[in-house]
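Methods: example folding runs. The two proteins below were folded one after another, and each record is reproduced exactly as written to the output file, sequence line first and structure-token line second.
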Amino acid sequence: MSNHKMNRRAFVKGAAAIAAGVTIVPRHVLGGPGFLAPSDTVNVAAVGAGGMGSSNMNALRSQNIVAFADVDFEHVAQSFVGRDGSPRDNRKELKAAYDRAARFTDWRRMLDEVPDIDAVVVATPDHNHAIVANTAMKMGKHVYVQKPLTWSVAEARTLQKTADETGVVTQMGNQGHSGDEGRRVLDLVRGGAIGPIHEVHIWTNRPLGYWPQAIPRPTETVAPPAEMNWDVWIGPATYVDYHPAYHPFAWRGWVDYGVGALGDMGAHLIDHAYWALELRYPTKIWGTSTPFGGVDDEQASWPAGNVVYYEYADEGGEPVHLTWYDGGLLPGRPAMLPDDVELNRGGGAILVGDTGILIYDTYGNNPRIYPEEVEETSRSIPETVPRVEAESHEMNWINAILGTEEVSSPFSYAAPLTENMLLGTTAVRAGTVLQYDAANMRFPNAPDADKYLGREYRDGWEL
């Protein structure tokens, strides 16, 4: 651009601002590409715009939605109607924003062709999270990634490294991390409400009734929907032909694409115990399960039920034991739990302390303490953990981009949490006790299990 044109453009914009009685300076003048003045909205794009992605984007409808990518626009359309087919009133604004935005079936084209994207929401199946988020971050985009952050431990390490190197604002979609009730769990644990804690039990009823697991891979050939981009859906995974057993949503039960119930709900259930106790990485993991689905012992789909045991080193010399249960399995009842108190079969956690127990539900909700006399004493424990001011986990991320609020669940926290979850699925796949060398990301006692920490990427889809 010539100096004459540049000076004239600056003059016209400055004169208009003065005439309007305001002093807003364009973002490109203040700080170059990607700079956001506090008064700006954020240019947001979505990769995976239906299902959970539409829920994320609905929470961001106050922002400027400039583009979205999805492999199946028919599936996206279903996000705007109820079960009876009538329009959902709470999605009308989002639909209007989607109708205005550029749309793509290949997210790579979207990132290449829409230059003014500031931030990207990633709500694809798990196996595509890492490549989309890593690519976006390297382009200077802020990223919000649905849980679990990644499909593999190695990918979690990669995303954490890229986030550190690029300095973009990151958030994982474990929305309970921003909730007041979940943060009350931390107040209580750190305030000594139930004394020292060395035992934790966490459970979910999934996948029971949510999606199929423990089934063999389909063998028949089915044509994908006419406009679906199946190649992009497969992404970095080994190519297989389309089948409705994989898409939509049922993908979570397949080892190549999802990480089962532990990956689905661990971020909402393990989160607060892991956070409050500052557990970091386990030293030992082992698991047991019902059979995998497959042919000739191939691990095609996750088992219907798992129990996973984690052991963490404690600075005081005593270990912390955490046990995960899914598929409808429940832990044994602690001695301090009154007989007339029922556990929430949908999911929850029990932290067992020396003087009492703390129970919370999914997302850290509804924390309560037993026995009664310990609960009465705990009421005086003050709030010490800052509460999130934004109206949603997604808007907390936006506020952090704008510099008005601290981000709730950045990759510096979310990546190690995800690694813990995926070490559990790794132990189930390995079928043996795993001693974990976190510094070197390996199992020194079972090197054959190291292969489960990463994957072989399809050509052209490497990180």
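Second run, written to the same file directly after the first:
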Amino acid sequence: MAGALTVKEAESVGAVAPAEARPRALEVVLAAVAALCGLGLVMAVSVQGPERGVLLAIKAQGGKLAVATIGFLAFALVPLRLLRRFATPAFLVCVALCLIAALFGREVNNARRWLPWGGQPVEFARFALIVFCAAAVQRAGPEIVTFRRGMLPLLGAGTLLAGVLALQPDMGNAFLALLTSAAIALVAGVRLRWFAVLGVPALVAFAFAALQLDYVRNRLAGFFAGTPSFQVQQSLHALGSGGLFGKGIGAGTMKLGHVPEAGNDFVFAIVGEELGLLGCALTLAAYAAIAVCGLRLLGRAADPFARYLVFGFTFAICFQAAMNLCVVTGVIPPKGIDLPFVSSGGTNLLFCMSAIGVLGNAARTRAAPSPVGRRG
């Protein structure tokens, strides 16, 4: 059959079926992401505008959004086979960068999370972890249920990254790394008994390491004593003061030195103050749409690698959002973590937009059906 691709060849290049190039669930995800990015730009201008000026605030956040959009487009177009091929070396390089930051990086707030030449590698490491885990599931095949081919590479990678992050220390992202790899392993079919062999010791070691830090013990003591921290008290006050419709964009006052990290970790409190309960509900609806539609896209993936890319990045984004919202509302002890697409942190925005690019790429890329050749 001259000029026709076999099924194997189609899978190797990741052919996209034109009729299914843009599934409805993917359109919903992209619309939700666009809405959240727009909200993030508005909140950045509202929070930074009084101090830096509106134009400078737009320029700063707009520049971060432009770079993140380039990341989205790049990973939406890159062949998935390249991601799979370089999954292991990319992950090891990212772990090494996190270790360099822990050992030689500049210290900020009693932690070394920045590389000596600038930048935080943790978001790149989380990205590489998900790609590595998806590739490990693909390699394991039916042997994913075994300890050696299933649990060991998946949770081993998460434990390795978490251990390096704990050295910085960055216990929040260490916990996310452990939980993300464990979630992929669980959904992929790793037997539960293997979690007792490797998962429980890893969790115990993580808890022990976290409790060696004074700030962790103090936060936990205050949380279990029923005494919200200063950040959470101010956050709850901001949320409650917005009422149903909020005070209006730019009209909030809690961002003026009252809510710490108003543009990053606690930006949702400013959303509540300025856009009210209605704005908060719409924000939650956007994340719910990403979660539901992301999971609906699982069945469209061409192979296990693509499938677990979709699951891993959907889980990472939505669980990070859930953690941030729980911190802001005082449901869990305070921990600095960005709200995906809305916080003004540029590195996290790049991670989230690149993740959506991969998600869309994996959902659109399907092995083309075997074509009918011409006679002759």
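Comment on the second run: The chain has one domain: 20-364.
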